[in-house]
């Protein structure tokens, strides 16, 4: 049986759950404390304000994405890697969906977080370009350097705006589902369609079928 979580870890876990379910702007530190059955003073002992909790959650998200958004060392990329990257991105988007939904507000509210996010975005774009280059070298995609750069940027725009799109076009944050986010991953894969080499197309099309969610199921 695992040991019980420490208070600081419980605050982080509860905050993530509440932010995801209700939206960050709807949740105060008093709400978090009440949810945990602790006093506000106990919460402030561990985190001086809500921004500090958000910064900790972003640090977790940042480390998680940095951990997988990179090319493997010493081997060529495969179609299994493409599935891995897409599924890992889906899991990260779902687990930290409040960050994607409330991103502009969060960055406007915290100058330090905004700078950290800017550097994080640069790393992600560099990592994505490296991965796309790996798929070119593996004979899965056929692209020029300029097309790689454009595809990485377009993919980033979709990934970082998809939750907000769903929240504004599809309903309340509490209505979001993992299936709805899966369609966003499909949109990223669809961007590559014109660059897929014929030999890789059957596997790519199978992956597209796996990720596709009809819009009628989302709205």
From TrEMBL:
Is-annotated flag, keyword DNA-binding?
A: yes
Q: Write out the entry's keywords from A to Z.
A: DNA-binding
Q: Where is the HTH tetR-type domain?
A: 5-65
Stretches that traverse the bilayer: none
Q: Which superkingdom, per the lineage?
A: Bacteria
DNA-binding region coordinates: 28-47
UniProt keyword Lipoprotein present: no
- Spell out the molecular function terms from Gene Ontology: DNA-binding transcription factor activity; transcription cis-regulatory region binding
Q: Can you say what this protein is called?
A: TetR family transcriptional regulator
Its source organism is Pseudomonas taeanensis MS-3
């Amino acid at each position: 049986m695992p040991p019980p979580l420490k208070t600081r870890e419980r605050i982080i876990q509860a905050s993530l759950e509440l932010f995801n379910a209700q939206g960050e702007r709807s949740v105060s530190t008093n709400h978090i404390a009440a949810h945990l059955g602790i006093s506000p003073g106990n919460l402030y002992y561990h985190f001086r304000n809500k921004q500090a909790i958000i910064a900790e959650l972003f640090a977790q998200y940042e480390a998680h994405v940095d951990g997988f958004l990179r090319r493997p060392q010493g081997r060529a990329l495969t179609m299994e890697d493409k599935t891995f990257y897409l599924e890992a991105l889906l899991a990260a988007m779902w687990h930290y969906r409040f960050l994607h939904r409330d991103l502009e507000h969060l960055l406007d509210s915290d100058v330090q977080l905004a700078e950290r996010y800017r550097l994080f975005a640069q790393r992600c774009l560099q990592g994505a370009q490296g991965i796309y280059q790996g798929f070119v070298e593996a004979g899965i995609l056929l692209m020029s350097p300029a097309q790689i750069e454009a595809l990485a940027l377009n993919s980033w725009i979709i990934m970082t705006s998809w939750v907000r799109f769903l929240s504004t076009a599809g309903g309340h944050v509490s209505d979001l589902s993992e299936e709805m986010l899966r369609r966003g991953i499909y949109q990223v894969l669809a961007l590559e369609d014109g660059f897929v080499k014929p030999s890789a197309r059957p596997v790519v099309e199978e992956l597209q079928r796996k990720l596709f969610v009809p819009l009628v199921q989302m709205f």
